[in-house]
Amino acid sequence: MRMTSTSTAHHSVQVAVIGAGVLGLAVARAISQTAEVLLLERHATFGSETSSRHSEVIHAGLYYPTKSWKAKWCVKGKELLYHYCRERHIPFQNCGKLIVATTQEQWKKDLPRLQQQALRNGVTDVTLINKEMVQQLEPNVSCVGGALWSPSTGVLDSQTYMTHLLADAEADGSSCTMVRCSNVTGARFENDGTIVLQVDNDFELHCKHVINCAGLQAAHVAQQIHSHNNNNHSNWTPPRHYFAKGNYFRLQGLANPFTRLIYPLPEPGGLGVHATIDWSGTSTKFGPNVEWLDPNLDLNDNHNSNMDGNLYCVSEEQIPQFEHEIRKYWPDLPKDSLVPDYAGIRPKLHHPSLQHSSPALEQDFYIAGPKQHHVAGLYHLLGIESPGLTSSMAIADYIAQQISISS
Q1: Where do the H-state alpha helices sit in 171-301?
Q2: Contact by Cβ (8 Å): 209, 378
Q3: Do residues 259 and 277 touch, judged by C-beta distance below 8 A?
Q4: 58 SS3 class
Q5: 8 A C-beta contact, residue 199 and residue 188
Q6: What DSSP character marks residue 110?
Q7: What whole-number distance in Å separates Cα of residue 195 and Cα of residue 16?
Q8: Is 342 helix (H, G, I), strand (E, B) or coil?
């Protein structure tokens, strides 16, 4: 990175990656082998928002629309992730998942439909199994008819995964520097193709490529970049993020009732309140539910009052609803055995209370590159929710390829 001494500090770098969640770390690792990377993180440490508040599931790729980015990158990313975990000795379990039917309609119609969707996505190892086979695998599970068995689903230690990604990016032979507590507040686009980022109003960062992996803040960062410059190349307006909260409860005082992941059928906005075993096999958590937040909520404006306070609180008032959902597949759940664990926030590109003109945005990741906004070298990764963790290495490879093509 080159610095020039003027009244406002100027730094130059080939690639700036905004956001050090799991996706930003994976992108920085992929690019740092061939280019100089500056990784900008607004918090004091990496992976402190969505990347540390989820189920830690390695998804198989069953649910997502055929030919969507989610389907493509989840299936590819799953294989890359398992390989990386084995290679780096990152704790994981390839435990598999049962998606259980709790009504006759689910058994006769919904599960076969989901199996066909999985097959269309290239997930060829899923099988429908009857109730007797479910009981053999998981004696505590109750179902109607049977379940869909996904053997390639698993769980991992996501914190250790992120630690390895950063270590790779900063290792000898790579060229990545992480700058903590750094906020991108604006940008301008120069005629020679340089993207100049304003960082904390303290210095300017002159870049050939900028990758916006800011997670919950990605839409806000995109707005900052495109609205605060004196050379707007297009009339492109970034889509905005809406937010859904997912609450988790932990099983207390009981041995793990399951050895595999237990899922209901998907619900609007999520995959249902499922049972997830810890990668170490020592605990079970349930969640997330889908709690849509106010469509007018701006996490940037409400950071001080909400982000570190009530927004991430898990209310015990939700326990009865969780118990009701869990008992659909585990009727023997003891009363008063759930305790609040944690909550996470998902960035969404739609909200159920609003009408949207692009249904495709509701179901997929959105990668806004030069074809969308006509700014060479600039990529915004928007609406990166589940299966973002599973897809992270596949998305990173795609972005690294785009950078290479445009260089």
Answers
A1: 218-227
A2: yes
A3: yes
A4: strand
A5: no
A6: I
A7: 10
A8: strand
Residue where the block lists tokens 């998804």:
59
Instruction: Give the residue-averaged pLDDT of 251-272.
Output: 90
What is the pLDDT averaged over residues 368-394? 97
Write out pLDDT tens, residues 198-246: 999 778 999 999 999 999 999 999 999 998 654 555 678 999 999 999 9
**Mean pLDDT rounded to a whole number for the chain:** 92
Quote the pLDDT of residue 10: 80
User: Averaged over 160-169, what is the pLDDT?
Assistant: 97
Strands (E), 213-337: 242-251, 261-263, 274-277, 284-287, 291-292
Residue whose token pair is 């849509």: 292
Beta strand ranges found along 46-145 (DSSP E): 57-58, 92-93, 97-100, 127-130
Amino acid 99 reads I
Burial class (CB in 10 A: 0-12, 13-18, 19+), 110: middle
CA distances from 96 to 137, 152, 155 (A): 11, 6, 9
Model confidence over 293-324: pLDDT tens digits? 999 998 886 444 445 568 899 999 999 999 99
Cα within 13 Å of Cα(205), Cβ side:
29
Q: Are 222 and 213 in contact (CB under 8 A)?
A: no
In this structure, the strands spanning 195-199 and 284-287 are unpaired
pTM for the model stands at 0.94
pLDDT at residue 299, as a whole number: 87
- Whole-number Å distance between alpha carbons of 84 and 54: 20
Q: Which contacts qualify for 237-240: CB closer than 8 Å, 24 or more apart?
A: 238/368, 238/380, 238/382, 239/349, 239/361, 239/366, 239/382, 239/383
